[in-house]
Task: structure prediction
Amino acid sequence: MSRMILAELLRLRRTRAVWGAALFTVVVVPVGTLMLNLVSSATRIGGIDAADITIALVLGPGLVGPAMVGVTAGIADRTAGVFSTLAATGRPRASLFWVRMPAVVAVVVPLALASWAVPCLLCAAIRDGGSDPMTWSWAIDQLPAVLVTDVVIALTALGLGSAGLGGAPVIGGVLALTLGVVPIAGSLTTTPDWFLALLPPVSVTELVGGASLAEKMGDSLALPAAMAVGGLAAWLVGSIAYGRHRTVHADA
Amino acid sequence: MSEPRPVLQTHGLRKRYGDREVVRGVDLQVPRGVAFGFLGPNGAGKTTVIRMLLGLTAADAGTMQLLGHDLPGDRREALRRVGAIVEEPRFHARMSGRENLWIHAAVLDRAAEQRIPAALERVGLADRADDRVGGYSLGMRQRLGIARCLLCDPELLILDEPANGLDPAGIRELRALVRSLVAEGRTVFLSSHLLDEVEKTCDMAAVIRDGRIVAQGSLDELAASREPRIELKLARAGEAATLLAARPDVQGTSAGADDRLTVRLRVTTISGEHQITGELVRHLVAHGFAPYGVSSSTERLEDRVLELLSRSDDEAVDRTTEAPTLVEA
Result:
């Protein structure tokens, strides 16, 4: 099994989409945010303010990166036409699905660490006089949210990709979720808790803290922990079970 | 002594996609250690049968056995020593040939990984193994596909249209490779819509049309089940026809235009036909004729297969024999 996981890792490393995801999450989102910050006269440059916004964006549109990794792992064999050959070895198809999960986590965790470290380092290094300095204790408080959200999104995308959804619907869904649904739902006081719990970036930040785009757009949220866990579990279990089912039962 | 168990056996195999039944009660028996052609036009159901055998799609009815193991129940054991190319060999284009084989070997076992260098050497790709597959020609990808099949040290190779897209040199290499695999005692099940390819590569064949097996057996049996005939080209064809008609191994003759002489033979096998053809030519030469052309039995097999494939449904009846000899449907 460990050789199969290494094979999955090799395949992911050789995929353009994974490098695109890394570029987007680690470079485009944080550096782009800071560049906008630099050219904008309305905001303070660097420091804690910029770091807070940048981490919130890493937990927003920045989730496209882990989603790309997940969905790529889910669809790569079928897209390349290799899945039928692997399935024809007699190896249970379920095992072909399960080995994708540790490989995705192994790619996404360093990606998440980099997407957290880069903006924190930049915001610590670049600061004008009007902004409070970013403290490392604050930065470390953000880390669990970045790690957990990235892994949840990547595994959800893996499940959906394995179920046959293409990259475009999954990436589009993540963008719509993070740029549209989360800020709007967060800004409306009438949004029911169960709906907020179904928004992974909201559920995670409610559970482990971290900068939240939803909170920046509206009032402070107070989601019950059980509901937040339930929301995340629903996504994870639902998408992974669906992906596994389709991998095992659909024509190869 | 009992007959060895076939390496591939199906009974009453059926598959329907929506309203269309694409496989309609296929019975196949492939003995060990032969190259077995699975011949039929595009859309006849060849790939669907192969996909069912490999567990890539479920059969609606019927039974299947590979290497003595029932499918789909004992799928893992059945496929453990089966190498397959389905439709066309596909790979991760941005990875090298060696890496693609390594990914496949990881799904098999550690021994498979150790077979990679030998497999690459065997198909003549050792020098290009570290190049990206995206830069490979179709012929190279076909060879890499066969190398991938070899990783499990297969007893049975299932090759779906392996000659597709190959140039004549590539087809010749493929043929030699298949024959060398058979010489090692492996069985090759080769689907093709190219009669010529099956005839030059295989020992036995089954003909499928509209999802039904219309004939199967050795190529000799397949060809000999039609009235055997040869065609000669020579001057004074009319006189030669009279001369040959008197021989006991000749059933009849007919001389046509352009020095053409058709001779119907009393013979049941291709080897017998070859022997008589030689004797007829010697006989003609001894009587002052100079034949300058003799048609091969290829045309007879071709005629036979075309005849089988062109029959209407009403003429086709399911075959039920258990012996792997030709039984016309």
